[in-house]
């Protein structure tokens, strides 16, 4: 395992093409829950074209972007305008424009099909598919790192509800929505097994076990991976979920975040191998269907355009 990062605790880098990768991932998920990956096989040109496509979308006039508005009927796929997502830590909103692609579930009444929301994002959709394969590889390694079989989590991902997020942080967006904090996205833990991030400019920061924030550098050909709530909950805290935020933005910035997620309505609670009389469940069950959907509705509201 090598290290990258100019300040704060070093960020370990795992080379996925190495035989040691599985052991390293297991170790780092217990220790801090975050690491960089290289040797992942996703072409740099695909990531570059996904960023270019994202920039082209955000350069469109607002009235065109709002045709793709996220809401209950889109199952929160699509466009979230600046500040539309409320902060969980201050009175304002998140100082960025956002977009989500992913599949919908038949368990909820759907309006427009997911294809409609993917239409402006052909390259990002191709990247999404590659990320899902990478996500499966990482999840197998996470399982093996827990001394379980590589397919241990597979029954909970049939079908998965992965998401690709495309965020744009323009300088001044915080002031535009009268935020009184200087960071651009509030500290939070993701509702996911883990998240894989590409940034075109630095800005992402992660909180370590010591409570200090570490900036995540932009390193060519690497992605940054951090664990979310669901793996911490399933493993009863053996694996660590990572608080993260986006600091003050001094240069326009984009991020692409891939969230590896279980199927709709999976109830995530500490699993048997991680619970005993000496180690009782430390987390309540969380329903990734109804509980997750009402959380999104409370944070994002419903601005979906009429079909
Ligand atoms: O922009 C980033 O780097 C991270 C965004 C994020 O944390 C999220 O969308 O959940
Ligand atoms: Fe996040």
TrEMBL record:
<dbReference type="InterPro" id="IPR027443">
    <property type="entry name" value="IPNS-like_sf"/>
</dbReference>
<dbReference type="InterPro" id="IPR044861">
    <property type="entry name" value="IPNS-like_FE2OG_OXY"/>
</dbReference>
<dbReference type="Pfam" id="PF14226">
    <property type="entry name" value="DIOX_N"/>
</dbReference>
<keyword id="KW-0560">Oxidoreductase</keyword>
<keyword id="KW-0045">Antibiotic biosynthesis</keyword>
<dbReference type="InterPro" id="IPR026992">
    <property type="entry name" value="DIOX_N"/>
</dbReference>
<dbReference type="InterPro" id="IPR050231">
    <property type="entry name" value="Iron_ascorbate_oxido_reductase"/>
</dbReference>
<comment type="similarity">
    <text>Belongs to the iron/ascorbate-dependent oxidoreductase family.</text>
</comment>
<feature type="domain" description="Fe2OG dioxygenase">
    <location>
        <begin position="159"/>
        <end position="262"/>
    </location>
</feature>
<keyword id="KW-0408">Iron</keyword>
<keyword id="KW-0479">Metal-binding</keyword>
<dbReference type="Pfam" id="PF03171">
    <property type="entry name" value="2OG-FeII_Oxy"/>
</dbReference>
<dbReference type="InterPro" id="IPR005123">
    <property type="entry name" value="Oxoglu/Fe-dep_dioxygenase_dom"/>
</dbReference>
<comment type="pathway">
    <text>Antibiotic biosynthesis.</text>
</comment>
<protein>
    <submittedName>
        <fullName>2OG-Fe(II) oxygenase family protein</fullName>
    </submittedName>
</protein>
């Amino acid at each position: 395992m090598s290290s990258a990062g100019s300040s704060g605790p070093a960020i370990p880098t795992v080379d996925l093409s190495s035989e040691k990768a599985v052991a390293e991932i297991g170790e780092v998920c217990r220790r801090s829950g975050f690491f960089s990956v290289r040797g992942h096989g996703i072409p740099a040109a695909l990531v570059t074209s996904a960023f270019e496509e994202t920039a082209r979308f955000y350069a469109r006039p607002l009235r065109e972007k709002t045709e793709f508005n996220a809401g209950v009927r889109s199952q929160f796929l699509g466009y979230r305008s600046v500040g539309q997502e409320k902060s969980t830590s201050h009175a304002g909103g998140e100082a960025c424009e956002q977009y989500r692609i992913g599949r919908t579930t038949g368990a909820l009444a759907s309006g427009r099909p997911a294809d409609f929301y993917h239409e402006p994002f052909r390259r990002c959709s191709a990247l999404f598919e590659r990320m899902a394969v990478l996500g499966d590889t990482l999840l197998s390694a996470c399982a093996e790192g827990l001394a379980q079989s590589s397919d241990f989590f597979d029954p909970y991902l049939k079908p998965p509800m992965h998401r690709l997020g495309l965020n744009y942080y323009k300088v001044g967006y915080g002031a535009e929505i009268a935020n009184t904090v200087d960071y651009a996205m509030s500290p939070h833990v993701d509702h996911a097994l883990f998240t894989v991030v590409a940034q075109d400019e630095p800005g992402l920061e992660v909180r370590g076990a010591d409570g200090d924030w570490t900036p995540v550098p932009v390193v060519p050909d690497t992605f940054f991976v951090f664990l979310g709530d669901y793996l911490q909950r399933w493993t009863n805290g053996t694996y660590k979920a990572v608080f993260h935020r986006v600091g003050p933005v001094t240069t326009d910035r984009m991020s692409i975040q891939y969230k590896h997620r279980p199927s709709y309505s999976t109830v995530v609670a500490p699993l048997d191998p991680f619970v005993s009389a000496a180690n009782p469940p430390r987390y309540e069950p969380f329903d990734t269907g109804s509980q997750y959907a009402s959380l999104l509705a409370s944070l994002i509201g419903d601005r979906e355009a009429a079909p």
